[in-house]
Design the sequence.
């Protein structure tokens, strides 16, 4: 009789099921960054109906991570389709309330943003699953604070499958959190970066120091990205520092190394 680690077995079966699901949906719609050099690394871009995870590198990078998530929502949606933002009740005390002029500067009409506050992280995840199924939704931003126990492999797998079924992007904004094993298709680490003045002492476009440390459909890499809000496109303002083939999803992030070491 062979002794079996049931936890590991369930994880392996889940990994196979998710891989099959990803392959089955490979032909679904995708969205690029608007910059040829980045989109070339990403292949056909990021899958629209998928779970994408964005972390701030440090607490003072929370604003940059939030701006990056909003930019992804704009790239992945169209027209005036609503963007649904889900968070816990106390979130405004932690990192403030979305500021309408700031949203406009990023290119998001505040009228498109629907904010839903929930009493617990469990309610955030339930509302996220429901929101992904609402016809006409452009994107769903899911922002539970820190690392709630309910945000586990099972919960993220459910979000991934729902996003695939509805072809609506699920953008998981992780503030005050650390990466753990889950079903996200991509995982980004975002740092603040200085903007470049557009002249006459005018403020420049938002700039993000973006590192893609997981991409279950292709390559990873590091870019300094400028977000041009008028056209809703990213533009690379420094060369790619390196790109590598993504490693299996269950490995911790620190095992991934770029081509530059």
Sequence:
């Amino acid at each position: 009789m062979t002794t079996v680690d049931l936890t590991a077995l369930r994880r392996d079966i889940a990994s196979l099921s998710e891989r099959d699901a990803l392959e089955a949906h490979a032909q679904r719609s995708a969205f690029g960054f608007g910059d040829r050099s980045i989109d070339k690394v990403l292949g056909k871009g990021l899958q629209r109906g998928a779970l994408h995870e964005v972390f701030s590198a440090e607490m003072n990078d929370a604003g940059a991570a939030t701006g990056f998530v909003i930019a992804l929502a704009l790239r992945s949606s169209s027209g005036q389709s609503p963007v649904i933002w889900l968070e816990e009740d106390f979130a405004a005390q932690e990192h403030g309330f979305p500021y309408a002029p700031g949203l406009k500067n990023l290119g998001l009409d505040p009228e498109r943003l629907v904010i839903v506050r929930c009493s617990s992280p469990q309610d955030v995840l339930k509302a996220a699953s429901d929101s992904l199924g609402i016809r006409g939704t452009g994107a769903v931003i899911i922002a539970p604070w820190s690392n709630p126990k309910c945000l586990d492999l099972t919960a993220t797998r459910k979000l991934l499958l729902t996003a695939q079924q509805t072809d609506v992007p699920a953008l998981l904004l992780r503030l005050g959190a650390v990466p753990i094993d889950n079903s996200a298709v991509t995982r980004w680490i975002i740092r603040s970066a200085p903007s470049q003045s557009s002249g006459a002492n005018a403020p420049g476009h938002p700039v993000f120091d973006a590192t893609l440390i997981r991409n279950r459909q292709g390559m990873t890499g590091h870019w300094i990205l400028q977000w041009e809000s008028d056209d809703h496109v990213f533009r690379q303002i420094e060369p790619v520092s390196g790109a590598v083939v993504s490693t299996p999803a269950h490995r911790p992030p620190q095992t991934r190394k770029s081509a530059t070491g």
Q: What stands out?
A: The radius of gyration is 18 Å. Residues 1-10, 20-27, 244-261 have pLDDT under 50 and may be disordered. The CA atoms of residues 50 and 163 lie 5 Å apart.
